[in-house]
Specification:
about 25% strand, six-stranded parallel beta sheet, globular, single chain, binds zinc ion, seven-stranded mixed beta sheet, alpha/beta
Length: about 325
């Protein structure tokens, strides 16, 4: 197999040839067809997340075909199209796992962070944490659903049912979640980097009723908002944008420090919450929604060997939609 590997945080990924890994009990070997590039990958590479298992192959929006079965696997047939997400394994016995909140497991493994991911031709994954996908789904178009879609969808559910929703940061996740929100009959207000008219046009094209820089207030109070951009100063901005009783959801795994803000913008039962990881039932629910809502992803494909270029384009905001690596 070939893989783009992170050897030390802060360094570019390097291409390596390795022997194909063998699937252990309960695992499958998957031939990767496409792997989305997520902002979390940048946080791993930049050392903004604690204790990555180095060296590590990043990537947790994996679509591929099952190439070999470990012992005890009967849920995923050989050759089937599968999706492998961020949540790679949970302990199954901590308080959170037993409460049905496996996204908060005390002893989890995460794909492309504490376990090798999909910036590679092959990857080994737990069968029980991989999703069987509908046959004939386009590999590249499906990849961003595995994190941007899935964790975005969890954030949307936690934001509540409010009809006027703000999305801060209009990248891979927001471009999917805007379509879901519209399909649910909500009105989407999109906030981009100030001056990003391309991003604002893109948001309007996907049905946003209003799009502007995040330094502008919305034209009317919002019921809820989701912050996808890893920018702490958006927290007070979003709290100011929501009405009494409104909720602000921080959907990223990492964010720059949140500046202090006056209590008055949280007062009146506004809520500020975060969303962490995903559960497997989030995934099953989201794939159902994506099918019914007819979600169409906008992607830019890069060869696996250009993973560093794809990451640089994501970092600089040059991308519209989602970057996807194709081995
Ligand atoms: Zn657990
Ligand atoms: Zn992700």
């Amino acid at each position: 197999m070939r893989a783009m590997v992170l050897q030390r945080v802060g360094q570019p990924l390097v291409m390596q040839d390795r022997e194909d890994p063998a699937p252990g009990r309960g695992e499958v070997l998957v031939r990767v067809a496409a792997c989305g590039v997520c902002r979390t990958d940048l946080h791993v590479i930049d050392g903004e997340l604690p204790r990555p298992t180095l060296p590590v192959i990043p990537g947790h929006e994996i679509v591929g075909r099952v190439a070999a079965l470990g012992t005890g696997v009967d849920s995923l047939p050989l050759g089937s199209q599968v999706g492998i997400p961020w949540l790679a394994r949970t302990c199954g016995c901590c308080d959170y796992c037993r409460e049905g909140r496996e996204n908060l497991c005390d002893r989890p493994l995460f794909t492309g962070y504490t376990r090798d991911g999909g910036y590679a031709t092959h990857v080994v994954a737990d069968a029980g944490f991989s999703f069987l996908l509908l046959p004939q789904g386009d590999d590249v178009a499906t990849a961003p659903l595995l994190c941007a879609g899935l964790i975005g969808s969890r954030a949307l559910r936690i934001a509540g049912v409010g009809g006027r929703i703000g999305l801060y940061g209009f990248g891979a996740a927001a471009h999917i979640i805007a379509q879901v929100a519209r399909w649910q009959g909500r009105r989407v207000f999109a906030f981009t980097r100030p001056g990003d008219v391309v991003g604002q046009d893109f948001a309007r094209k996907l049905g946003a009723v209003w799009a502007a820089g995040s330094d502008e207030p919305p034209p009317e109070p919002l019921d809820c908002a989701i912050i996808f951009a890893p920018v702490g100063s958006l927290v007070p901005a979003a709290l100011r944008a929501v009405r009494k009783g409104g909720r602000v959801v921080c959907a990223g795994i990492h964010m720059s420090d949140v500046p202090s803000f006056p209590y008055s913008i949280l007062w009146e039962e506004r809520e500020l919450v975060s969303v962490a990881n995903l559960t497997r039932s989030d995934g099953l629910e989201f794939f159902e929604i994506a099918r019914e809502a007819g979600i169409v992803t906008e992607t830019t494909a890069y060869p696996l060997s250009q993973a560093n270029e794809a990451l640089a384009d994501l970092r600089s905001g040059r991308l519209t939609g989602a970057a996807v690596l194709v081995p």
